[in-house]
Amino acid sequence: MDWGLSGNKQRKIKLCKKVVLQIFQKSIKFLYMIEGVIIKPLSKIIDERGSVMHMLKSTDPEFEQFGEIYFSTVYPGVIKGWHLHKVMTLNYVVIKGHIKLVLFDQRENSPTKGEIQEIFIGEKNYCLVKIPPGVVNGFKGIGTEEAIVANCATHPYDPSEIIRIDPFTKEIPYQWDIKLK
After folding, report:
1. Residue range of the domain that includes 152
2. What is the Cα 116 distance to its own chain's centre?
3. Is there a domain that residue 169 lies in?
4. What's the number of domains the chain is made of?
5. Sign of CA pseudo-dihedral 83, 39, 153, 144
6. pLDDT class of 31 with cuts at 50, 70, 90
């Protein structure tokens, strides 16, 4: 319906509707994001010599404090998880290969308590994923090669700070199978 508007005004209204729809669709995605989890696209600088892959700087708004950095490798099809950190914040980046990172919010006072979030990260989706304490996490190697996961943690490793949970527990409503969408 044109409501007696000129062609130019109709185009502007159509464009506004399109922009509003795009904003709405993007906001719907965030409704399912677990509270406190940050996913930040990162840059790679590539030239004929190789590449530089940025991860986290002390001047980044996501940076809290430095505890340690370590690297974990995972073979295709292997699951590492579930893990629950009581005080440590994790800052994951996959520098080689790909993983399916799965998060489960079991924090009592969280607005997203009970939510599951899947994030596919690696060379083709190079990003930092910040996971706050109390969010259960695990990952599975996907693709055809070993993946290397870097974690810049806010605290040094302390075995009394981590709770390890069976990856196939019924307490977490998640199955690690491939999901065909």
Report:
1. 35-164
2. 11
3. no
4. 2
5. positive
6. very low
What is the per-residue pLDDT for 179?
Answer: 78
The CATH number of residue 71's host domain is: 2.60.120.10
The tokens of 173 are what? 């409503």
Between CA 116 and CA 83 the distance in angstroms is 14
Query: In which residue are the tokens 């509270």 written?
Result: 35
* Rg from Cα positions in the chain: 20
C-alpha–C-alpha distance, residues 128 and 119, integer Å: 11
Residues 40-54 have pLDDT tens digits of 999 999 999 999 999
Amino acid letter, 136: V
Residues in the chain: 181
Of all residues in the chain, the percent with pLDDT exceeding 70 is: 82
Residues 26 and 98 in one domain: no
